[in-house]
Amino acid sequence: MTNHKILVIGIGAGNPEHLTVEAINAMKSADAVMAMDKGDAKADLLGLRTYLLEKYAPGTPLITVEDPERDRNPVDYKAEVERWHQARAERLAAAMPDGTIAFLVWGDPNLYDSTLRILERMGEKDIHVIPGITSIQALTAAFGLVLNKIGGPITITTGRQLEAASSPPDNTVVMLDGHSAWQANVGENTYIWWGAYLGTENEVLRHGYVTDIGDELAELKANLRMEHGWIMDIYLLRERA
């Protein structure tokens, strides 16, 4: 049996001031924080967690576990993600001490994050989720946008799903785009609001009709990934007459 109380804490899109009072209090109550170490290329992701602990919960130890390798272009995407999640669960379970253990999750733990699924695989039952500001909120705030049209729906999807869509998207937020999926299935009136490294000192914002800036944006994203070793970007696509 496990002897843990688990805190899954949303820490926002990258700005240290995105943390809520509830998140800060939860961090202070933890006996330890656990995180995956994704190597030198993504050291910034671990660095932010270290900074947040030093700022808001000094003295709380950070336990890191080497992230297992993952095939980014598998034949069976779902099967590969399931295998990866299982490998993560096994490594975390082996390293987790007793007590109140926190996980600091980018954005919000309930949106395109695997932490809760991995904890379920580990058999953890006493789990408490503290919501965080999502990159969607950070994007719309940066551009001063209302996310929905009047009385209209909002679609949130992935780059992989966008590339497989059969028609141009309208009012669609795209996350987890490993490529430049905005170049697929767009019409002449498709407008994009794009942001990378939102809430950080490296934040980059662009907007315009995809037909005008799509190629330039793809080149920019590739250059930013090369410069920083990683990239987190998100964008909103909307049809504009």
Automatic annotation (TrEMBL):
Which Pfam families does its entry note? Answer: TP_methylase (PF00590)
Domain named Tetrapyrrole methylase: residues: 5-211
> Tell me, what is an example of a GO biological process annotation in this record?
methylation
GO molecular function terms listed in the Swiss-Prot or TrEMBL record = precorrin-6A synthase (deacetylating) activity
Gene3D superfamilies in the record:
Cobalt-precorrin-4 Transmethylase, Domain 1 (3.40.1010.10), Methyltransferase, Cobalt-precorrin-4 Transmethylase, Domain 2 (3.30.950.10)
Q: Which CDD domains match?
A: Precorrin-6A-synthase
- Asked whether the UniProt record includes Methyltransferase among its keywords, one would answer yes
Q: Which UniProt keywords apply?
A: Cobalamin biosynthesis, Methyltransferase, S-adenosyl-L-methionine, Transferase
The pathway noted for it is:
Cofactor biosynthesis; adenosylcobalamin biosynthesis
> Signal sequence: where?
none
Broad class of enzyme this protein falls into = transferase
EC number(s) recorded for this UniProt protein: 2.1.1.152
In terms of PANTHER family, this protein maps to: COBALT-PRECORRIN-2 C(20)-METHYLTRANSFERASE, PRECORRIN-6A SYNTHASE [DEACETYLATING]
Q: What is this protein called?
A: Precorrin-6A synthase (Deacetylating)
